[in-house]
Structure formats: C-alpha cells, structure tokens
Amino acid sequence: MKALLSLLIVWMSLPSFSQKAIVSGRITDSTKMGTIEGAQIHFLKNDTTIMSGFRGSYRIELKKHLSDTMVVTHWKYGSVRVPVALLAGAMEELNIAYPVSCKSFPKTGVCPMCHTGANSIRIVYGMPSKEMFEKSEKGEVKLGGCVVDDCMPHYHCKTDRIDY
Ligand SMILES: [Zn+2]
Predict the structure, then answer these.
(1) I need a labelling partner for 123 at 20 to 30 A (CA). Which of 60, 104, 107, 112 fits?
(2) Which domains does the chain have, with CATH numbers?
C-alpha cells in the first residue's frame, strides 16, 4: 500500500515536470468553407513556426509554454491571433475559421457555424484562478491565455471547436 501511494504521488507530480501539450487541427477558409494549406503558424512564446499542410491540417507539440499566442498568417488573408492555454499533457484540437475580423466577433454567444449557443462556453482571459482552472477542466469555460489585445473572440463552440 505504501508503494502504491508513493507511485501515485510520483504519477501526480509528473505533469509539473513535463510541460508539454499537443495542439492540432485545421485552418479553414471561413468565406468559402474550404481549407487553407500553406498558412504560417507561429507560436510567439514557444518561438516555433510550422505550416498548415494537406487540407489545412497542422499538429504541434508545445514544449516550453502551455499558455501562448498562436499567430496564423497567410499571404491572402493576413494575420489572426489566437490565444491558447493548455494543461500539461493535454491533446487539444483547435480549428481556426479564417479570416476573422474584430468586428465579426459577436457578443451574443451564438455560434456562426451551428447557429446556436447551446454548446458554447465563454473564453476567459488573463491569469486563471484555481477556480477557473477547475471550471475549464469541467469544460465550463475556456482559458484564453494571458496575452490580451483588443481583437479576441468571446466564446468557444464545443461542437464545432471554433472560437468566435
Ligand atoms: Zn457551433
């Protein structure tokens, strides 16, 4: 029993050692409902850049910072900044409907893809409290990260996996 307990303690403390998480998804063209290949995806704090590949797909392992800003750039559509905040060991799917403009972010909580707010949650920015972490683990809010500018989505649709 003692051995089991110490094993459990080692296991529970592991995530603090391995600050890694995986983000993957697709970059989509929100005007034509197609996918965008060859978009540059840069993670500011992790200082890592990848390109979206076949059918707009991308996949990256974040090794340094689990809270970061993802900057997606394409020659035709310009740039969009998407805040990401992951828990250690998480595998998050994040699809980005693009291009978006600040003005297009509604404050009503009605998803532009499924036209309902039934499965949408608020995105919370800033350093999360313990309570907010617990809420995000239950899927009640989405943590938006600590980098805030004036062009941020307010909601996340869990059905379509988009921020809007
Ligand atoms: Zn939706």
Answers:
(1) 60
(2) 20-163 (2.60.40.1120)
